[in-house]
């Protein structure tokens, strides 16, 4: 059953949709957890802390600890800690990003920060955009937790962090350094935490443009589940073909159990 030493799961569209769990995923994740598999949850959502996300998963009957959750905020904060220890930051973002930067030893400075860090901020104001734009023009580095332009909701697409970045790019002409998926560094960060090489891991997600691309760039096998963003008819046109495609997580697990193996690495195995 344990074809891989570690499994990296995207959350929204893979484990749940918004606040609604995907039943096939809950069953499969419980089974995988009970089998003793190494599981990490990898989310571009920069607004929540790992503690909040683990609590949300547990409330959905998916066993998870904060140590199993890696957010784009954590990866961004870790990069600042390792490359510019004690840096000052101006932040557009919510609690998840603030907490990660605080824990990484960053100082907060509205006027002359070393780095402007931008994550989704649902209290965004013109004043915040102004401070960030002026700091970037004064030479601050421009970092972004994730590039997602739009967030799917039951009402339609809502502005994502990429929309905020677009406003700052339009103002300053500067492009941000981005840390979330599809950047492979995000996947490498999670693998390093587990002590597992890319060849021993499977990246699972619903988005062929971000999850699957991030996994492929990082050197992991990939499983695309058709429970979220990517539609079945889009699979053939993805920038990178997933190693596996499944209707949902439970269907893939049953396939693995039936054949005794998910198969070796190689070309795409769809169906
Ligand atoms: Mg997703």
Brief digest:
With 271 residues, the chain is of the alpha/beta class. Helices cover 37% and strands 20% of the residues.
Q: CATH superfamily name of the largest domain?
A: HAD superfamily/HAD-like
Number of helices: 9
- Which percent range describes the beta-strand content? 15-25%
Bound ligand species: magnesium ion
Low-confidence segments: 263-271
Overall form: globular
Supply the helix-strand structural class: alpha/beta
What number is the mean pLDDT?
93
Total number of distinct structural domains: 2
At the fold tier of CATH, the topology name of the largest domain is Rossmann fold
- What is the first-to-last residue Cα distance? 20 Å
Q: Give the proportion of residues in helices.
A: 25-40%
Supply Rg: 19 Å
CATH class of the largest domain: Alpha Beta
Order of helices and strands: EEEHEHEHEHEEHEEEHEHEHEEH
What can you tell me about this protein's structure?
- The protein has 271 residues and is α/β, with parallel strands linked by helices.
- It has two domains: 6-44 and 181-259, Rossmann fold (3-Layer(aba) Sandwich); 85-178, HAD superfamily/HAD-like (Rossmann fold, 3-Layer(aba) Sandwich).
- Helices cover 37% and strands 20% of the residues.
- The strands form four sheets. The protein has a six-stranded parallel sheet with strand order 5-4-1-13-14-15, with helices on both faces. A five-stranded parallel sheet has the order 7-6-8-9-12, with helices on both faces. A two-stranded antiparallel ribbon has the order 2-3.
- β4 (38-43), α2 (50-59) and β5 (69-71) form a beta-alpha-beta unit.
- The radius of gyration is 19 Å and the shape is globular.
- Residues 10, 12-14, 205-207, 228 line the site of magnesium ion.
């Amino acid at each position: 059953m344990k074809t891989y030493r570690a499994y990296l799961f995207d959350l929204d569209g893979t484990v749940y949709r918004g606040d609604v769990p995907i039943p096939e995923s809950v069953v499969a994740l419980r089974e995988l957890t009970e089998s003793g598999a190494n599981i990490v949850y990898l989310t571009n959502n920069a607004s929540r802390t790992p503690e909040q996300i683990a609590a949300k998963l547990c409330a959905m009957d998916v066993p998870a600890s904060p140590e199993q959750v890696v957010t784009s905020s954590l990866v961004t904060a870790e990069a600042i800690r390792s490359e510019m220890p004690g840096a000052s930051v101006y932040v557009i973002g919510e609690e998840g990003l603030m907490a990660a930067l605080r824990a990484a030893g960053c100082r907060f400075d509205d006027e002359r920060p070393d780095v402007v860090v931008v994550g989704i901020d649902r209290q965004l104001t013109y004043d915040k955009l102004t401070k960030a734009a002026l700091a970037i023009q004064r030479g601050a580095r421009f970092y972004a937790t994730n590039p997602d332009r739009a967030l799917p909701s039951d009402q339609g697409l809502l502005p994502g962090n990429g929309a905020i970045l677009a406003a700052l790019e339009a103002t300053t002409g500067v492009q941000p350094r981005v840390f979330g998926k599809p950047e492979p560094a995000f996947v490498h960060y999670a693998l390093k935490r587990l002590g597992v090489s890319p060849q021993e891991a499977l990246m699972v997600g619903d988005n062929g443009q971000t999850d699957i691309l991030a996994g492929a760039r990082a050197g992991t096998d990939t499983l695309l589940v058709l429970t979220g963003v990517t539609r079945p008819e889009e699979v053939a046109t993805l920038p990178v073909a997933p190693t596996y495609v499944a209707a949902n997580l439970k269907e893939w697990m049953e396939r693995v159990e039936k054949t005794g193996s998910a198969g070796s690495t190689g070309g795409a195995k769809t169906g």
